[in-house]
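Reviewer 2 asked us to include a model.

Predict the structure of this chain.
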Amino acid sequence: MSTAPGGARAAKGHCSICGAGLPETPQITGRDLLHAVPGEFAVHVCSGCGAGNTRPFLSSEQLARHYPDTYGPHRSEGPLAGALGRALAWREFRVGAAGALGEMPGGRLLDVGCGDGETAALVARRGWRVRGVDPSPQACERARARGIDATVGTLDTVELEPGAADAVLFNHSLEHVGDPVGALSRAREAVRPHGLVAVSVPNFGCAARRRFGRNWFHLDLPRHRVHFTERALRLAIERAGLETRRTWTTTSPSGLAGSVQYRRLGGLAVREGPARRAIGQVAGLALIPAARTEQLAGAGRDFLHAVAIRSPEAAGG
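Predicted model (structure tokens):
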């Protein structure tokens, strides 16, 4: 059984991972630098597990306005955006948690937060039968156009057959959840004994986050509700009744580029139409060699990945 603090306790000022009381003074304050939706937000870092917790704790309805129609993971439209989406999906399958699926013979996959289905379609081409879940109707529509069985909703709202999945994937979606331990617990219930749960999230413990602070691209306030260090992710997995098999970090191709643009421009160039958006994307691509340099120097590593299993001991818990 999960010992998750739950969204209710988190809303009252407790850590979403371990349930400890959060410090009154935030470590980071900032705003929505990606889509410039109004609002000021703070990240309170738990002294117990090191997780960052975004406050105020928004309801699902309040948070929905921070996912406009132009939100990238929900729509990879246009030649440049489409090519970037495919490249990022392939990279995640090669070096991220989704890559663990390539080491398996296929089976039934639950993709939580499937977005427009780019990664799900890539996994499906490798023999997996994929069911996607995402709260965005537009994203699910695009996923279905790629052949993915996508359902509108969240793990709180969709019906899941216990133990029916061979694997569950949270590909940069767990950080969007107000109660990540609860979400992982539901994933444990959905996966068979010895089944796999794969997670990729931004690495809140990386040097880039400390360097850029509120301008760190993967902070993504307020959409990222929980910010994971390795310790916090391992604890969330453990509290959900899963067994961590391995964790690792990688350097994203977008983190340095986006962070530099945030610091210099006060936001990303995505809000003023296709031409301005394309300029911002090209500028970001130009900084990829610098991101690789940071990776070689060990300063990047801004993505955190974990693979866990549902152990037989937890099968009935």
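Residues 272-277 have pLDDT under 50 and may be disordered. The first strand starts at residue 28 and ends at 30. We have added this to the supplementary material.
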